[in-house]
C-alpha cells in the first residue's frame, strides 16, 4: 500500500495524463474515422482511393512505428515545436481512426440500399443522404465495436511513455527504477487505474447503446 500513499501525486498525474490522452485521441479518431468512412463509400473514385489507402496503411502499421514516424518524421519535415503529448495524440488518433472507419463502414453496410435510393429519388445529395439517413442508423450498430476500439485505445496510451509523455506507463517506469518498492504492487496499482478507465468507457458505451437502441 505504501507505493500508492508515498507516490500519490505521481499516480494522480499519470492517471490524469492517461485520461487526457485517451479522450483527445478518441475525439480525433472519431472525427477522422467518420470522415474516412464517408470517403470509402463516396461516389468519387479519388476519395475512395484515399480512404482505402488510409485504412490499409494505418491498420497494417505497428503503433510504435507510427509513433516514431510522427515524433521523428514531422520535425524532419520542418514541423517543429510540437509538444510530445500532442504528437502522441496525433499518432494514437490517426491509428485508431482506421479501425473506427471500418466499424462505421460495417454499420453503413447494414442500412438497406433502398433508403439511400429513396433519398436520391427526392433530390437529396450524397452528403445529405449520408449525414441525415445513413450515418444515424449506422452509428447504432457501430456503437459496441467502437466502444471496444476506444478501450483498446486507452490501453495503447501506455506506448506514449516511451516518448516522454506523462501517463500511467511513465509512472510504472519511474517507480520500477526506484528502490524499495515491490514491483508486483506497482503493477497492481497501475492495472487498477487502467481498469477504472476501461470500465468507465465500457459503462458509457453501454448506456449509449441502450439509449439509442431501437425497440423491436
Automatic annotation (TrEMBL):
ABC transmembrane type-1 domain segment(s): 15-205
Transmembrane residue ranges: 21-41, 61-78, 183-208
CDD domains: TM_PBP2 (cd06261)
Main location: membrane
Membrane protein topology class: Multi-pass membrane protein
Compartment(s): Cell membrane
Keyword Transmembrane: yes
A Pfam match: BPD_transp_1
Keyword field: Amino-acid transport, Cell membrane, Membrane, Transmembrane, Transmembrane helix, Transport
Top-rank lineage group of the source organism: Bacteria
Stated family: Belongs to the binding-protein-dependent transport system permease family. HisMQ subfamily.
Full protein name: Amino acid ABC transporter permease
Native organism: Streptomyces abikoensis
Amino acid at each position: 500500500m505504501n507505493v500508492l500513499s508515498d507516490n500519490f501525486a505521481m499516480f494522480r498525474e499519470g492517471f490524469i495524463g492517461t485520461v487526457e490522452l485517451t479522450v483527445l485521441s478518441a475525439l480525433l479518431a472519431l472525427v477522422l474515422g467518420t470522415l474516412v468512412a464517408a470517403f470509402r463509400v463516396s461516389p468519387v473514385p479519388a476519395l475512395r482511393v484515399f480512404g482505402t489507402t488510409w485504412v490499409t496503411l494505418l491498420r497494417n502499421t505497428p503503433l510504435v512505428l507510427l509513433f516514431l514516424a510522427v515524433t521523428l518524421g514531422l520535425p524532419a519535415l520542418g514541423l517543429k515545436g510540437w509538444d510530445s503529448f500532442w504528437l502522441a495524440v496525433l499518432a494514437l488518433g490517426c491509428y485508431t481512426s482506421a479501425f473506427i472507419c471500418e466499424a462505421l463502414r460495417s454499420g453503413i453496410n447494414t442500412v438497406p440500399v433502398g433508403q439511400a435510393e429513396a433519398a436520391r429519388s427526392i433530390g437529396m445529395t450524397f452528403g445529405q443522404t449520408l449525414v441525415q439517413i445513413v450515418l444515424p442508423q449506422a452509428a447504432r450498430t457501430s456503437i459496441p465495436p467502437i466502444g471496444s476500439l476506444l478501450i483498446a485505445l486507452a490501453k495503447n496510451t501506455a506506448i506514449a511513455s516511451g516518448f516522454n509523455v506523462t501517463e500511467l506507463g511513465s509512472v510504472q517506469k519511474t517507480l520500477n527504477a526506484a528502490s524499495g518498492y515491490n514491483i508486483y504492487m506497482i503493477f497492481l496499482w497501475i492495472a487498477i487505474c487502467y481498469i477504472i478507465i476501461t470500465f468507465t468507457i465500457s459503462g458509457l458505451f453501454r448506456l449509449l447503446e441502450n439509449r439509442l437502441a431501437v425497440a423491436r
